[in-house]
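Final report, closing paragraph on structural work. Over the funding period we assembled a curated collection of sequence-structure pairs, and we close with a single example.
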Amino acid sequence: GLADVTVSRSAAGYDVSLNGFQLVNRTGTKTVADKYNAASGKIVEGSSTFAVNGGSLAGAHDVSAAIDATQTRLDNFADTVRTEVNALFVAGTTAGGVTGMPFFAEPVPPSIAVGAMGLRLDDPIAADANNIASGTSGLLGDGTLAAQISGLRDKRIAALGNQTLGGYYSSLVSDVGRQVVSAQDSVDTYQSVADQIDAQISGTSGVSMDDEMATLLRFQRAYQAAAKALSTFDSMTETLIGMLNR
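Its predicted structure, as stored:
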C-alpha cells in the first residue's frame, strides 16, 4: 500500500487509521488533504502533522532522500576532479606548442558546480587527442604532467573533507553497497515473516481470519516498501558505477 494503514475491528464495525490518524470509524470517514511535505516526509492536516512511516510512500521518500545524498556526493566528486585536473593541465604544452588548454570543459560562469552530468572533455580535447598535453615542455616523451595528474589520486583535498580522490570514491561506492545489502536484508526478513504468517493462517482453525489478514497486510506493505527501496538502489548503483567507469 501507499502508507502504513491499520485496520482493526470494533463493535461498530471496522476502524481504519494512518499512523494513528483515524480515517474511518463508526461516525464516518475523514478525508486527508493532499498536503504532503516531501522534504520532511510528513502530511499536514489542519494544525496536525504526522509522519508516514510505512508503505510505498514512506519507502519512496526514504529512497529519494538516499539518492539525493548520494547524488550530492557524486556531484562533489566530479566537480573536484574537474577542478584539480584542470589546475594542472593548463600548465601543459601540447606537441604542437599549444598551452593553457583545460582538459575538462569549464562551466560558465567558472564558479558554478555542474556535477557529474556536466563533466565532459573540453571541445578541442574531444575533437583531437593530439591536444592532450602529457608534459610541460611540449617535447616528445615528456610525461611530467601526466605523472602529476596521476598523483591526484592520493592527494588529500579539502573539498572532499580532506580525503583523497581514491578514498572518497571508495567510500561512496561502499556506502551505496551497504545500503543495497541492508535493503536486501529487510526484504528477506519481511518475506520470511509474511511466509510464516501465511502458513499459520493456512494451518490454524478457529481464529479470526479478518484479524490475521489485517496483520498479514501490514507485513506485506512493509515488504513492498523494502522491495521498492532495493530495486531503486540496484538501479542507482548500476548508474553510479557506469558513470564513474566511463
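Residues 54-91+110-117+147-246 form one domain. The chain is about 50% helix and 15% strand. We thank the funder for supporting this effort.
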